[in-house]
Specification:
Radius of gyration of chain A: 13 Å
Largest sheet of chain B: 9 strands, mixed
Oligomer: heterodimer
Number of helices of chain A: 3
Distance between the termini of chain A: 13 Å
Strand content of chain A: 15-25%
Shape of chain A: globular
Radius of gyration of chain B: 20 Å
Bound molecules: iron/sulfur cluster
Distance between the termini of chain B: 29 Å
Order of helices and strands of chain A: EEEEHHHE
CATH architecture of chain A: Orthogonal Bundle
Number of helices of chain B: 15
Strand order of the largest sheet of chain B: 7-6-5-4-3-2-1-8-9
CATH class of chain A: Mainly Alpha
Number of strands of chain A: 5
Strand order of the largest sheet of chain A: 2-3-4
């Protein structure tokens, strides 16, 4: 399984991404488990809303953080996210 | 609260709301207390809402609605809705008995996140025998409906001597039903399972065979189905890190409002577990005697006290230490360093003896009549 660069990426309907006030962190919730996210992972996942493909996610984040060269890090994280079932592509 | 000594602690993350002890099934391994029949009173809807609100404020986020059979509570949908509004990730832990499609839809709309359906075996005959109630056909149907309505489907099968030979078929059934998660829970010997241990504890060979099948299956379904395998700790050399440490992560509220550091803690003597009708969750979690009792490592006796593994397993399970050695401060006898470790082998030998047909004794089914005998 790896990311198809042409297809939009969406967050899995079988997981929930939410801000936890008590922990001051974004977390992914799923049956019997919870993953705490660092800020950059959370920013990436929030853009996985089914309207953007990989290149669009990268350019949106580069714009937001006024930087460039994020493609490798973002791709690597999304591969992990895909393998864990947090995101999907149709 | 009087007599309490406060030890610094992390906030609760998991809340298990045991809404009721009522259940139409009679599983002989049920983790409810054997004398549950004497606890008749149940919290009101308002009590539960207050508990959910207070625990959420402290940081609890995973919520299990359990029992007994939580579907017997008429206010279940209302509580699910309240939980969703508070931002919990909530789970209905159900036998599936009496769960209609209409209710599945209603709960989804109220904000329930997932449903865990238990099945007792891979065949109707054995399932219905173990459950003490004809329920197999309905359970399978419920599993399909849960999936159909977009919930992650969690199938739970408790494993013991009566069904362990069906492991291959159980795995095939999970696949056929399209489970997203399969929990293979080797029986833990508390409550009713403790009372029925001679009839439920499989042999080491049976465990090893079943585990091999489960591990191989895990690889073939990787990416499609997640397997949670709860180990049979009687055949381990070290105990489990019970509850991730006493009073660190888990909070259970029993049907009558008693707050417990683990769902079996009711069996331990002298804990004076507080009731949510008298105290707030914050007071209970931070200040009560019960939640501070085994917090940290100070309470330990030898061999745990000077053991270099104590931060790993916290000395194991307090309930198991109590049930099997009579002293809840002892090391969990599952540990090979425990001076009482021999009781584990005795339990295994005793169970092996009862596996022979000549000595067969009947299972004690979990129902009110039998429960009153334990009271
Ligand atoms: S284990 Fe069986 S008897 Fe016990 S509450 Fe669950 S379904 Fe009911
Ligand atoms: S002696 Fe106690 S702390 Fe050490 S491994 Fe055994 S149970 Fe754990």
């Amino acid at each position: 399984m790896s990311i198809n660069p042409d297809k939009p990426i969406k967050f899995s309907p079988l997981h929930r991404l939410q801000w936890e006030e008590a922990q001051q962190k974004d977390v992914i919730l799923y049956p019997e488990g919870m993953v705490e996210l660092n800020q950059s992972s959370a920013e990436i996942l929030k853009l996985c809303d089914g309207t953007r493909n990989l290149a669009q996610i990268v350019s949106d984040l580069e714009l937001k953080f006024a930087t460039s060269g994020l493609i490798n890090d973002i791709t690597a994280f999304l591969e992990v996210a895909l393998k864990n079932g947090w995101i999907q592509q149709d | 609260m009087a007599g309490s000594n406060k030890i610094s602690s992390t906030p609760p993350r998991w809340l298990l709301a045991e809404l009721t002890y009522a259940c139409p099934l009679q599983c002989p391994y049920c983790s409810n207390p054997v004398d549950y029949a004497k606890y008749q009173s149940e919290l009101s809807t308002e009590d539960w809402k207050r508990v959910l609100t207070q625990a959420r404020k402290m940081g609890a986020v995973q919520l299990g609605f359990s029992g007994g059979e939580p579907l017997t509570r008429r206010d279940l949908t209302e509580l699910v809705k309240h939980a969703r509004d508070l931002g919990y990730y909530s789970n209905l832990i159900t036998s599936g008995y009496g769960l209609t499609e209409e209710k599945i839809i209603q709960l989804k709309e109220a904000g329930l996140d997932h449903i865990q359906v238990s099945i007792q075996a891979s065949t109707q005959e054995l399932n219905d025998h173990i459950a003490g109630t004809a329920s197999f056909v309905r359970k399978k149907e419920v599993a399909r409906l849960v999936k159909k309505h977009g919930y992650p489907m969690v199938l739970c099968v408790v494993i013991h001597r009566e069904n362990i030979h069906q492991m291959a078929q159980i795995l095939a059934m999970a696949e056929e039903l399209g489970a997203d998660y399969l929990e293979l829970a080797n029986t833990q010997y508390y409550g009713w399972a403790h009372a029925n241990r001679d009839l439920l504890l499989p042999t080491k060979e049976q465990f090893e065979q079943a585990e091999q099948l489960a591990q191989a299956f895990k690889e073939t379904v990787a990416g499609k189905m997640k397997i949670y395998y709860v180990v049979p700790d009687f055949y381990e050399e070290r105990p489990k890190a019970c509850m991730n440490g006493w009073g660190t992560t888990f909070l259970t509220i029993a049907p009558d409002g008693v707050a417990l550091p683990c769902h079996s803690a009711r069996e331990l003597p002298g804990l004076d577990c507080p009731n949510v009708k008298d105290y707030s969750i914050e007071e209970i979690w931070n200040e009560s005697k019960a939640f501070n009792f085994f917090r940290g490592l100070e309470w330990m006796k030898e061999p745990c006290r000077s053991c270099d593994e104590k931060e790993k397993d916290f000395g194991g399970c307090r309930c198991q230490a109590y049930l099997l050695t009579g002293d809840m401060y002892n090391a969990d006898p599952v540990c090979s360093k425990s001076p009482d470790h021999a009781v584990i082998q005795q339990a295994i030998d005793s169970a092996a003896k009862y596996a022979l047909p000549v000595d067969e004794k009947p299972l004690i089914f979990r129902n009110s009549k039998n429960s009153r005998l334990f009271s």
